[in-house]
Write a structure and sequence with these properties.
232 residues, 7-stranded mixed sheet, 6 helices, 7 strands
Amino acid sequence: MLKRGKTIPEVRWKDTPDFVELAKKWKPDAITNLLKFVWEGYDLLVSEVLSQINCDEAKEQLERSITQSLERRIHKKMTDCHFFYVQHEVYEFETSKSAQAQPPQYDIAFILYENERIIWPLEAKVLETDGAVGDYIKEINENFITCRYAPFSSQGGMLGYLFSGDPDKAFTNIETKIPCTLNDHPDFLTRDHKTSDHQRVVPPGKSYPTEFRCHHLLLKIIATATNNIPSV
C-alpha cells in the first residue's frame, strides 16, 4: 500500500480546531442555525418536490437524488450565512487510508470558509420502513464513532429518509441497536429530531474531539400537505 502524502488543503491549513467551538465563537447558536437551515431546506423540498409527485413511482437513486435536491434547498436558505457554506458530496481527505484509496465522501457537508478542512457532515440513509435502520446504524458505529467521519468536529448528523412507518418507532429501533440514549433537541421539539452523545475511538497520534454528539433527523418522504409542516 502506497503511503499517502499531503493534499493541497492539508498543506494550506495546518491548524484544525473543532468546527463546533469555532462556530460558537462566531455565534453562540451557530449549530442550531445550521440545523435550522436543514429543516427549512426540507420544508422547501416537501413543498416544491415531494408534495407534487407520487414518491412510490420513484425507484432508482433514491438516496442520492433526495440528498441532491435537499442540498440545493438548504443553500437557498443560507443567503445571510458568511461563516460556513453547504456542499453535496464532499471528500474527507484527512481519513483517506492510502494514496490509491478514494477518501470517505459525505452526502452533505457544512464547510468553514476560513479553513476548508474543518467540516460538519451529514450522512443520509433511506429507511424504507421504521424498522429498516441497519445501514443507518452502521454509518454511526463504523464511521462517526471511529473518527473516520467528522475528525475535526465534535458534532455531525444523520438524515433518515423515512418512506413508511412511525418516526417514534424508528427512533426506538435506532436507540436500541446502536445502542445509545436519544434525547429531544430543545430547539426542535416539533420536529423528528433527536441527539445522542458518544465517546469516540481516536486513532493514536491524533487530537480529534473525543466527545461526539450525533444529530438524528428523520425526514418523511411520503409528503404531507405543506400547511401541516411544523415550524422550526
